[in-house]
Write a structure and sequence with these properties.
- By secondary structure, this protein is α+β, with helices and mostly antiparallel strands.
- It contains 2 helices and 10 strands; from the N terminus they run αβββαβββββββ.
- Strands 1, 2, 3, 4, 5, 6, 7, 8, 9 and 10 form a 10-stranded antiparallel sheet that branches.
């Protein structure tokens, strides 16, 4: 039985490992310097049973901006990220036209990641956890930024 804390920790690990496989100019953040009014939240817990939203099973969903990409480099980095997921053997798929293109990956341990361009041409990466007991230990909040420091991908609040 997975706790919310365990689910958060593993989701952060998947984001960090993805970032480690990418060029160091990329980072993940809830705020984008070029889109000051498009801040993202630190994750939302969604109940599996909407009739009983305070108990039972739930998932956590969160989305980060992929900093270091531009509308001109969006497709290059999109292909790079989804290619990394494929190399790892994760179940991947993508679809949509150039402006609405989305790439999805399902990890062997049941986590989901998605890569999507915004209407402005920037990229964002979302993650979702498998089910956990809603009233379990919550753990640390998801970080506001995951970036490169001294050759390693690290997170900060």
């Amino acid at each position: 039985m997975r706790t919310q804390a365990e689910a958060r920790t593993q989701l952060l690990r998947h984001f960090t490992e993805t970032l480690r496989a990418l060029p160091p100019e990329l980072s993940l953040a809830l705020r984008h310097p070029d889109l000051p009014h498009a801040g993202l939240h630190r994750g939302v817990v969604l109940s599996e049973d909407l009739n009983h939203p305070d108990g039972g099973w739930a998932t956590l969903d969160i989305r980060y901006w992929v900093l270091g990409t531009t509308p001109d480099t969006r497709d290059l980095y999109f292909d790079l990220v989804t290619g990394v997921w494929r190399e790892w053997g994760w179940a991947t798929r993508d679809g949509g036209a150039a402006r609405t293109r989305t790439g999805w990956a399902a990890t062997p341990d049941g986590y989901g990641l998605a890569l999507t361009p915004s209407v402005n041409g920037y990229l964002s990466m979302a993650g979702s956890t498998p089910l956990f007991l809603r009233d379990s230990v919550v753990g640390e909040p998801m970080p506001t930024r995951i970036a490169w420091r001294d050759g390693e991908a690290v997170s900060s609040s």
